[in-house]
Every structure is written in C-alpha cells, then in structure tokens.
Amino acid sequence: MSYWINVAVALISCVLAALIGVVLIPYLKKIHFGQTILDIGPKWHKDKQGTPIMGGFMFIISSIVSVLIGYLLYRGRYMVDVTSAETTKDALRLLSCILFSVLFGGIGFMDDYIKAVKKRNLGLSPKQKMLFQFILSAAFLAALYALGDTSTEIDFIFFRLDFGFFYYPVMIAFIIYVSNAVNLTDGVDGLCGSVTVVSMLVMSIICNILKNYEISMYAVAIAGGCLGFLVWNLHPAKCFMGDTGSMYLGGAFIAIGLTTHMHLMIVIAGLVYILEALSVVIQVSYFKITARQHYKKTGEKGKGKRIFKMSPIHHHFELSGFSEYKIVITFSIVGIIVGALAILSVI
To answer: What one-character DSSP code corresponds to residue 52?
Structure first.
C-alpha cells in the first residue's frame, strides 16, 4: 500500500482533532465537566482543578472518521475485491478493533461522567471497571476466533509456545493489564498523548510490514488524532483526555496488537505503558509487605515503606524535580528506542 494514504489519514485525523477542540473545550467548560484533583498527588496539581475532562472525544472522533476515509481511499486506489471472503474478514477485523476501542472508551466515559456529576475523583469502583473490562475482553477474543484467529500460540521471536485453552484467560488478563497501563500513563500534561503518538506510529509501521494495511491505517489515525489533541493537552493543559480517552487508547493499542497476533510487539512497543503499571504493582506490593512486617513487630498498622516517591513512576520523576515537559520528552524518547527495537524484530 502506498504510504501517502497513511500520511493522508494521519493529517486528516490530526487537523480534525485539533478543530474539534475549538468547539469541545468551551462546551465542557459550559457544562462544568472539570477534573477534581485528589490531595494525594503533587501539590502543584491543584492548579489543574476544574480543567475540562473528556477531551478524548477529539481523537476518538477524528481517528474513526479518518480511518473510514482512508479505508475508502485504499479500496478505490487498489480496486480491492469487496466480494472476496478475505476482504470481508479484513474489514470485520478493522470493525472489531474500532468497536472494541469505542466500548472500552465507553467504560472510561461512565467513569468520567460520575466524576463530573458527583464532583469526586473516584468514578466507577474497581470491581465495576474490572467486570466491564472482563466482559469486553472475552467478547473481543471470541470475535477474533470467529474471524479465523484460532491460534493459541505466542511468538517469542526465538521460539513459539502453545498455551492451548489457557491462552484465553491469559489474554483476558493481558488485555486488562495493558489497557489499564495506558490509563495510568495519563497523569502528566501531554504524557499519554505523546507516548501514544510514538507507540501507534510503531504499530502502524509493523502492520504495514506484515501487510495488515487496514489495521495500519487505524493505528496511524490514532497517532494523528493524538497529535491534534496535544495542541490542547501539552502543559499547561487546556483539556484532559480523561478516562474516556485513555481507556479508548488502551483498548485500541491492545486490539491492534491482538488483531495482528503480535503479542510480543505489544510489550516491546508499549514498554512505557507496561513499566508505568508495573511501578504501581511494585509500590503497592512493597508497601503491603513492609506494612505487614511492621505490624508484626510493633502492632502499628499502615506503616509500610515505599520504593518510589509516588506511583505511577512519572509522578516519582515529577517529585524528583523533572518538569512536565522533561517527563514527556524523556518517556517519548524511551518509546522511540523500544519502538525501533520492535520494528527491527519483525524486519
């Protein structure tokens, strides 16, 4: 496929997302859909109180519109036989990716709506989120199976491992982990958007190499949409993507990887996300273990130790004196490095 189609899709998505912000941000301010900042975060984050959330609609709308335009251009330019079974399957895989991403974004929307209406930063309970994510993850895997992806093997580059029946519960857990990892990356102005521009460009290139052209267009559409969103989200942010946006991005990233059966590429290209979530797991686990040990010795509760100043790890860097711009640049550079490794592994 000619790269000009992907370039066109990215540009359309970028411009459209930026233009949507012109209308969306004043509207969100008008209906008072602003962020409530918790006291447990960095003190200077209090200045962000009331910043509009649900800005993720900018790249959600732009990515869907632009990928549909790109798909029509692709079909017209290359005279794709729409009657063939393989073309139908490719279209349905793309549709499954988009639908799964939107539904995951829907979970985030419910969370944001509760935050905005109730004026608290809790939203849905963890159990509610987990239940919705489990149902959607299982449904998505069932859709891929119905579309012909019946393989239960995972390619580790140097060897393949067949998980058999256990592939599905492992993948459900993997989907939930990765999608929430993307969500956790959204904690500093411009961070999640910038990292996602990089990771989606990497996934688009890999999909092109593997000749998954439709999925490649979707990945680059999201990259372009995030770039347009950053016009409004770089520090000082005029709008946050909210869980609406971060859950959509998390769902899209994992869906693109699984639709093309690139499990290891998800980990490599999305290493920044993975480490963000891992820092939370390490912090919480270490605190609980040391708190339990302290309780046994002294009888005092809640006296655990921490490895990081704060998790996710971008807050640790923030509390260590990194500016928000420096965090965004550093994490994006890491994303570029691991992304290059991911591309090299499939060439």
So the answer is: B
Neighbouring C-beta atoms of residue 231, cutoff 10 Å: 18
Query: What are the b/e assignments for 13-22, b being 16+ CB within 10 Å?
Result: bbbbbbebbe
pLDDT tens, 153-211? 998 877 889 999 999 999 999 999 999 999 999 989 999 999 999 999 999 999 999 99
| Tokens at 164, concatenated | 């058999």
Long-range contacts of 26-29 (CB under 8 A, 24+ apart): 28/52, 28/53, 28/54, 28/55, 28/239
What average pLDDT is seen over the chain?
91
Q: What are phi and psi of 240, to 5 degrees?
A: -105, 150
Q: Residue 160: beta bridge partners?
A: 155
CA 107, 112, 117, 120 torsion-angle sign: positive
**154: enclosing H helix or E strand:** strand 153-155
Q: Quick check: 14 and 227 in contact, CB under 8 A?
A: yes
**What is the CB-side half-sphere exposure of residue 6 using CA atoms within 13 A?**
22
pTM for the structure as a whole:
0.94
CA distance 233 to 34: 14
Q: For the chain, how big is the Rg over CA atoms in Å? A: 20
The torsion angles phi and psi of 235, rounded to 5 degrees, stand at -60, 135
Q: In the chain, helix, strand, coil percent, each to 5?
A: 75, 0, 25
Q: 3-class DSSP state for residue 153?
A: strand
Q: From the centroid of its chain, how far is CA 17?
A: 17
Identify how many contiguous H helices and E strands the chain contains and give both numbers. 12, 2
Q: Which two tokens stand for residue 119?
A: 């004026």
